[in-house]
Amino acid sequence: MRSADLKGALAMVEARAENIAMRDRLAAREPLRLLVGQGGGQSEIVLSAAYLADLRAGLVYSLNRRIAGNDAALARMGVEP
Fold this sequence. Notes:
By secondary structure, the chain is mainly α. It has helices at residues 3-27, 49-76; strands at 34-36, 43-45. The chain has 2 helices and 2 strands. It has a two-stranded antiparallel ribbon with strand order 1-2.
Protein backbone atom coordinates (compact mmCIF):
# COMPACT_ATOMS: atom_id res chain seq x y z
CA MET A 1 0.00 0.00 0.00
CA ARG A 2 1.36 3.40 -0.96
CA SER A 3 1.86 6.12 1.64
CA ALA A 4 -1.08 8.15 0.28
CA ASP A 5 -3.29 5.05 0.35
CA LEU A 6 -2.22 4.32 3.91
CA LYS A 7 -3.09 7.88 4.98
CA GLY A 8 -6.48 7.54 3.31
CA ALA A 9 -7.13 4.21 5.01
CA LEU A 10 -6.15 5.62 8.41
CA ALA A 11 -8.46 8.60 7.90
CA MET A 12 -11.28 6.21 6.95
CA VAL A 13 -10.64 4.07 10.06
CA GLU A 14 -10.79 7.22 12.22
CA ALA A 15 -14.01 8.40 10.54
CA ARG A 16 -15.52 4.93 11.05
CA ALA A 17 -14.62 5.01 14.76
CA GLU A 18 -16.23 8.46 15.14
CA ASN A 19 -19.38 7.29 13.36
CA ILE A 20 -19.61 4.22 15.60
CA ALA A 21 -19.11 6.33 18.73
CA MET A 22 -21.86 8.77 17.72
CA ARG A 23 -24.23 5.96 16.76
CA ASP A 24 -23.63 4.13 20.03
CA ARG A 25 -24.20 7.28 22.08
CA LEU A 26 -27.47 7.96 20.29
CA ALA A 27 -28.55 4.32 20.63
CA ALA A 28 -27.74 4.48 24.37
CA ARG A 29 -30.29 7.31 24.59
CA GLU A 30 -27.79 9.97 25.62
CA PRO A 31 -29.42 13.42 25.61
CA LEU A 32 -29.92 14.92 22.17
CA ARG A 33 -30.26 18.69 21.88
CA LEU A 34 -30.82 20.86 18.84
CA LEU A 35 -28.96 24.17 19.16
CA VAL A 36 -28.83 27.16 16.83
CA GLY A 37 -26.01 29.68 16.96
CA GLN A 38 -22.55 29.74 18.46
CA GLY A 39 -21.01 30.59 21.80
CA GLY A 40 -23.13 32.77 24.07
CA GLY A 41 -25.65 33.33 21.29
CA GLN A 42 -26.92 29.76 21.22
CA SER A 43 -30.59 28.97 21.46
CA GLU A 44 -32.07 25.53 22.03
CA ILE A 45 -34.99 24.35 19.93
CA VAL A 46 -37.29 22.28 22.12
CA LEU A 47 -38.62 19.21 20.31
CA SER A 48 -41.55 16.99 21.17
CA ALA A 49 -40.71 13.52 22.47
CA ALA A 50 -42.13 11.87 19.33
CA TYR A 51 -40.18 14.14 16.98
CA LEU A 52 -37.02 13.63 19.01
CA ALA A 53 -37.46 9.84 18.82
CA ASP A 54 -37.89 10.05 15.03
CA LEU A 55 -34.84 12.28 14.73
CA ARG A 56 -32.76 9.91 16.88
CA ALA A 57 -33.86 6.90 14.80
CA GLY A 58 -33.03 8.74 11.58
CA LEU A 59 -29.59 9.68 12.84
CA VAL A 60 -28.83 6.10 13.95
CA TYR A 61 -29.95 4.85 10.53
CA SER A 62 -27.80 7.43 8.75
CA LEU A 63 -24.76 6.60 10.87
CA ASN A 64 -25.24 2.88 10.17
CA ARG A 65 -25.19 3.69 6.44
CA ARG A 66 -22.02 5.76 6.88
CA ILE A 67 -20.37 2.90 8.76
CA ALA A 68 -21.35 0.46 6.01
CA GLY A 69 -19.86 2.89 3.48
CA ASN A 70 -16.67 3.13 5.53
CA ASP A 71 -16.50 -0.69 5.66
CA ALA A 72 -16.98 -0.98 1.90
CA ALA A 73 -14.32 1.64 1.17
CA LEU A 74 -11.87 -0.06 3.51
CA ALA A 75 -12.58 -3.44 1.91
CA ARG A 76 -11.83 -1.95 -1.52
CA MET A 77 -8.49 -0.80 -0.09
CA GLY A 78 -7.82 -4.31 1.20
CA VAL A 79 -8.20 -3.26 4.83
CA GLU A 80 -10.40 -5.11 7.31
CA PRO A 81 -12.47 -2.77 9.48
